């Protein structure tokens, strides 16, 4: 277990658990947390064994957003740096080659929702309070929220949240596609772990390439996305894991993937 000032990182074989741990401020994200997130990613990138990362928040919030107390006195130039550092960190999380699951507990507001949006999968709870309250503070989502949310749930639902500051519950977030699954609060980590294990048992290169293909496609034309997908599938036919997966099916046994 690695314990940093604002979070802990626990690596258990092929799974990793990152718990935001600035409980007193409801895990509000500030420069110290951005530093810690980058240090955690350094550790994750150095461990090729880890296949899936689960991010959650200790206490009653996944994250209550950007640290208003740090932001309130920033000059526009300092704010530019804070936003750029945050964006660089969020992009780094989104582009991690391992699979990321946001286990969204309680509040996920502003930067908290933006962090969840960088993850590949969002599992929430019936007790969630989710939204973009930034307009009530005189700003807008600045860690990619207006862009990533509209790609996930569409322009209309994103405007609904980002223009009004409306806070929605888990059931509504699930209904509009902001959460892929919801469970009761006491089931959250169990469900996220179960789903992480389900992902981790699949062919490692295939998992990474599926993520890459989907992420690339969400930012490109259909034509270019299909081209990349085709190249990836062709490449996967050269892997040992493809032979193992298909042979195991025909031989009616469990595949033993090597990530080769
Ligand atoms: C680039 C990114 C930009 C952004 O994300 S802008 C920020 C967007 N987020 C928000 O506007 C949400 C702000 N927080 C709240 O509205 C409330 O909190 C909640 C509704 C989430 C929870 O309310 P309750 O249960 O009454 O708790 P509490 O007493 O307000 O919070 C406990 C402590 O946490 C601090 N805190 C909460 N959110 C933030 C934050 N975003 N930045 C800095 N501190 C925060 C509070 O001040 C307080 O601290 P103390 O006990 O010292 O009074």
CATH class of the largest domain: Alpha Beta
How much helicity do the residues have? 40-55%
Low-confidence stretches: none
**Radius of gyration over all CA atoms, rounded:** 19 Å
The tally of structural domains comes to 2
β-strand amount: 15-25%
Order of helices and strands: EEEHEEHHEEHEEHHEHEHHHH
Number of strands: 11
User: Major beta sheet, specifics?
Assistant: 7 strands, mixed
Question: What is the CATH superfamily label of the largest domain?
Answer: 2-enoyl-CoA Hydratase, Chain A, domain 1
Corresponding CATH architecture of the largest domain: Alpha-Beta Complex
In terms of structural class, how would the helical and strand content be classed?
Answer: alpha/beta
**How is the CATH topology of the largest domain named?**
2-enoyl-CoA Hydratase, Chain A, domain 1
The total count of helices amounts to: 11
What is the terminal separation in angstroms? 29 Å
Mean of pLDDT: 97
In this entry the ligands are: ligand A1D88
Q: Looking across the biggest beta sheet, what order are the strands in? A: 1-2-3-4-6-8-11
Shape: globular
Describe this structure in words.
This protein has about 260 residues and is α/β, with parallel strands linked by helices. It folds into two domains: about 1-200, Alpha-Beta Complex (2-enoyl-CoA Hydratase, Chain A, domain 1); about 205-250, Lyase 2-enoyl-coa Hydratase, Chain  A, domain 2 (Orthogonal Bundle). Helix content is about 50%, strand content about 15%. It has eleven helices and eleven strands. Strands 1-2-3-4-6-8-11 form a seven-stranded mixed beta sheet, with helices on both faces. Strands 5-7-9-10 form a four-stranded mixed beta sheet. Strand 3 (about 15-20), helix 1 (about 30-45) and strand 4 form a beta-alpha-beta unit. Helix 3 (about 75-95) runs parallel beside helix 4 (about 110-120). Bound molecules: ligand A1D88. The site of ligand A1D88 has 19 residues, from helix 2 and strand 7.
